[in-house]
Amino acid sequence: MCLAIPGRIISLDNLEGMMRSGRVDFGGIVKQINLAFVPEAGINDYVIVHAGFAISVLDEEEAARTLEYIAEIKRAEESGDGEG
Amino acid sequence: MKYLDEFRDPIAARAMLEKISVAASREWTIMEVCGGQTHSILKNGLDRLLPRRINILHGPGCPVCVTPIEMIDRAIEIAQRPGVILCSFGDMLRVPGSRRDLLSVKAEGGQVRTVYSPLDALEMARKNRDLEIVFFAIGFETTAPVNAAAVYQAATEHLDNFSILSAQVLVPPAIEVILNSEDCRVNGFLAAGHVCAITGYSDYEELVENYHTPFVITGFEPLDILQGIYMTVVMLEEGRPAVNNQYRRVVRRDGNPEAKRLMGKVFERVDRKWRGLGNIPGSGLGLRAEYAAFDAARKFGLEQYEKEEAGECISGLILQGLKKPFDCPAFSERCTPEHPLGATMVSSEGACAAYYHYSLTEFQRIKKNRNE
Amino acid sequence: MAEENNKATGCPLPLSNYPRILLAHGGGGRLMHQLIDEIFRASFDNPDLETGHDGAILGWSGNKLVFTTDSYVVDPLFFPGGDIGMLAVYGTVNDLAMCGARPRYLSASFIIEEGLPVETLRMVAESMHRAAVEAGIAIVTGDTKVVEHGHGHGVFINTAGAGSLEHDRYIHPSKVVPGDVVIINGDIGRHGIAVMSAREGMQFETEIESDLAPLAATVARLMENGVEIHCLRDLTRGGLATGLIEIAQTGKVSVVIEEKSIPVSGPVRGACEMLGYDPLYIANEGRFVCLVPEKDSGRTIEIMRSLSWPATIIGRVGEGQLGLVTMIGAIGAERIIDMLSGEQLPRIC
Q1: Mean pLDDT, chain C, integer
Q2: pTM, 2 dp
Q3: Which of B107, B302, C1, C102 lies at 20 to 30 Å from C272 by C-alpha?
Q4: Residues 29 to 68 of A: which have CB under 8 A from any B CB?
Q5: What does the CA dihedral B10, B14, B20, B25 come to, rounded to 10 degrees?
Q6: pLDDT at position A81
Q7: Distance CA C279, CA B177 (A)
Q8: pLDDT at C5
C-alpha cells in the first residue's frame, strides 16, 4: 500500500530532532529526506523512503542473503534448462 | 537501481514459479493487503504466470480506495472555503465523493495542491501564515508516523494555520473483519512490507494464534512477491501457520521504535468507517486531545457530517476478497477509470483499475467465452 | 440484485463528463483525446483533419505543403536544457519533420501576462531565434497579445509551421505493416522529469537536462539515404506509450515492445520509482519512434548513431489484436499498454 523505495544517504545536513535530514540519492536523482525515524543511519547507508521520510535502514547483509538465495535458484534453473 | 533491479530477474522468477507449482498440491487462496503489491502483481503479470491452483485476492490495501465517501466530501467542503489551501497526495484527487472529486473543485477555483510529503504542506503553512493549510492525511501505518511528524512539528513551531483531515487506518482490524466473514475463502495472507517496517509483526502473531492462518511479511518487487507466495504455500502445505518474514532486508520484528513512539504520541485509536467495509471499531487513528487544535474536521466544524455509500459498486466485496473485479456487472462497461463508480476503479492501486489497465483483453476473452 | 442496485439514485456522477476544463484535459491521455474528438474534430470536421496526423499535408498548385501548429505553456519558462522559446520552435519543427517535411516558415504568437519582465521576453525571443537558425526555419510572421495579471503564466507561445514535402512518400500510421521494426532515438522521460525538477515544490537535485532537440535534420538524412520510413512520431505529451497507441489505433496494427530494451536513465528511473510514475508516459521533446521494414532497420540505426543518437530497437509490429500496444515486461509476462485517463498523479501507495 505504501510506495517506498531504497536510496543511499549521501549527506547529513540537519541533525536536529524531528527535522533531522539528509540528501538521499535514488539512482542519480537526489532529494532532501527526513531521517528522524532512522537515528542509526549514516552516510552511505541505504534507507527505505516513503513520502519524504526514511522509514527503515536497509539491512545489506539480509539483502545479500536474499540475493544469494535468488542466485542459487537461478543457477539451478539455468542448469536445469541445459539438461532439459 | 540497486536493491530494485535484482528483484526483477526473469530467470529467477521462472524458478520461483516452478517452486510454487511443485509445492502446491491443491488449490490455495492467498490475499495480499497492499495496493503497491496489487500494482506489482498486475503490472508484472504475476497472476497470469502463477499456477492456476494459486488464487490471488486483493484485499483492502489501498488507502485511497478505503477512504470513506464522507471524508472526501469533507475535504471538498474545506477546499471550497476561501483562504484555505487543501494539500493532498496525488491519487486522492480523482476519487469521487458523493457528488464530485477534488479535481473538479480545483477546476472551479478551489485551492487544491498535490504534495509528495506532508512536510511540503508544512512548508506551505510556514510561508503563508495568512492562509489555512489543511493536509488530507490518508494512509496506513506506513504513512501515519509521517503525518504525525508534520503535526508534531507544527505544534513545536506554533503553526496554528496548519491542520490535518485525519483519515488514517490500521491494517490488522480490517484483516480481522475479513477473517471473521462467514464466506471467508482466504487461506493465507501476504502482509504489507512497508506497514510492518513501522509496526513490526507481533500483531500478526496474535492473528495467527487466533485464526490459524499463515502470514508472510512481503516486499514489493516481483521476486519478493513470488517468494512470499512460495513461503505461504509451504506453511499451508505443512499445516503449520506462523508469521514468516520474506522482507528481512527492511522489516524487523519490532518495527521502527522511533516512528511508533511518535505515532503513539500524536494519534490514538478511534473507530473508523472504511469505504466498502463499513465501520470497524478501533481501526482508525485520530489526533489525541493535546493535538486537537490541528484537527481540520473540528476546526472547520465538519465532525458530524456523515454520508452513506450507494450505487451498484461492489468494491466492498472486492476489498474483502469475496468477488473479483471481473465478477462485477459494471466492470469496464458502466465503470471505467474515466467513469468510476467506486474507489477501487479510481486509484491506480485499486484492484479494479489495475485489472482494467493490465488485464482488459483477458476480461474480453472471458466474456466472449461466457457468451458463447 | 443488479436491477435493484441500478435503481439506487446515489451513484457518483459520471466524472468523465466534467463540466469544466481540468488540467487533466491537457495531459495527453484519454480525456484529451475525448476533448479533441467531441469538441474540435466534431466542429472543424474536414478530410485533412481526419488523417489524425501531426500536421496536415495540403495540395497547393502542384506542390505539397505541410502545415501544423502547437501552443506552448511550460512552467517554469526556463528549465534545465531549454526554455519555452526553444520548445516553441523545436516542437513545431518536429511535428513537420514527423510528416517527412522540410521545415520552411514559422509563425509566432505571444500571449503575455501583464507584469512579465521585458528582459525575460527578450531572452525567450533570442532563444527562439537561435533555435530557428539551428533548425533551418524562418520566423516570418507573428502576433502579440497581453492579458491581465493573473490570467496567464508569464507567457504562452503559439507557433504554426509550414514545410515542403519534397518526395512522394506518405509517412503515416496507415503505412505501418506487420513485421515493421520500432526504433527510438534515445532514452525516454528526460524532458518531463527535468521540467518537474525545476518546478517549485518538487525540489529534486538532478543533473538531468531536457531532451529537447530538433529532429528534422535526422529525418532528412534518413530519407536521403533511401530508408523506407513507414511512420514517424515524436513522443511528446503522454510519452512513448501514448505515441505508440496513437500509431496502433490510427494504423490499425498491433505493436509489441519489450520493457528491457527501452532506454531509461538512472535519474529518470529514480524519480519515477519515487513518485509512482511510469516512464512510458513521461513527456519527451527530442525523442521519436521510427517504424521501418526489417530490411532497413540496421541502416536506420547506423544513420541515427552517426548523428549521435543512441538509437535502438524497442519493438515490432505484430499480428496481434489491431489497435493494441502490448509490452513484454521485466519478468517476461505480456501486458497491455493503455492510454492514461489524464495526467499522471504521484501515488502514495
Answers
A1: 88
A2: 0.89
A3: B107
A4: 34, 36-39, 46, 48, 50-53, 55-56, 58-60, 62-63, 65-67
A5: 160
A6: 56
A7: 38
A8: 32
